[in-house]
Amino acid sequence: MTQAEKLTKVFKDQELLEQAFTHKSWVNENKNKRKSNERLEFLGDAILEFIVSREIYLTFPNKEEGYLTTLRSNLVNTKNLAHVAEKLGIGEKIYLSRGEEDGGGRKNSSLLADTLEAVIGALFLDQGMDTVYEFIKEHLLSEVPEKISKPLKDAKSRLQEYVQSQGHPAPIYKVIKASGPDHNKNFIVEVLVAGKRKGQGTGKNKSSAAQAAAENVLNNAS
């Protein structure tokens, strides 16, 4: 029995789980049959970030915000979530359109990560926070020792590795807007990859905005 099959047996509301596995492309081909998993993904994303943030905050009481932010990012980034989804066999369960299927959707990192978040959202609605915590603890928080055993890579470092693996030069970051008084500035930074705008992020300083922009690009990379 695969992990995905075990997960199926856990759910009380099977229709809720089916919705978690339903990509919007399938809904477009099968009108009025089922809602997509986008709302569940929204919920699961928030729950995942909260649980991981709380756990590493309590586990590392002497670490600064920057360290905790980078560790969380290493755990909940698209690539890592997709890896967990693959281990769980989630790709086999997703309802996809024919076009998405033919385009390799079951191996698409963003799609897999989004579906995992939708499953987390559905599990919360089905069985509550304690069950969700145990699920995340088993499949994501268990990776903390491995992550901290080597230097943590922030979003900019991971993006640079990714774009260079695609044969592109290092990304370029540009501040496109700075607003607010000196004591409460807000920066918007965009990322250029091979001369093309790929994403942007906001932050209270240029560095945090650049990190947010890099994370935005990584989250949208397949």
Q: What features would you describe in this structure?
A:
This protein has 222 residues and is mostly helical. It folds into two domains: 3-148, Ribonuclease iii, N-terminal Endonuclease Domain, Chain A (Orthogonal Bundle); 155-220, Double Stranded RNA Binding Domain. The protein has helices spanning 3-10, 14-20, 24-29, 38-59, 65-76, 78-88, 98-102, 109-127, 129-139, 144-148, 155-165, 206-220; strands spanning 172-179, 186-193, 196-203. The chain has a three-stranded antiparallel β-sheet. A hairpin with a 2-residue loop joins β2 and β3. α2 runs antiparallel to α8, α6 crosses α8 (109-127) and α11 (155-165) crosses α12 (206-220).
List the helices and strands and how they pair.
Elements: H1 3-10, H2 14-20, H3 24-29, H4 38-59, H5 65-76, H6 78-88, H7 98-102, H8 109-127, H9 129-139, H10 144-148, H11 155-165, E1 172-179, E2 186-193, E3 196-203, H12 206-220
Antiparallel strand pairs: 1-2, 2-3
Write a concise synopsis of the structure shown:
With 222 residues, this protein is mostly helical. The chain has helices at residues 3-10, 14-20, 24-29, 38-59, 65-76, 78-88, 98-102, 109-127, 129-139, 144-148, 155-165, 206-220; strands spanning 172-179, 186-193, 196-203. The two termini are 28 Å apart.
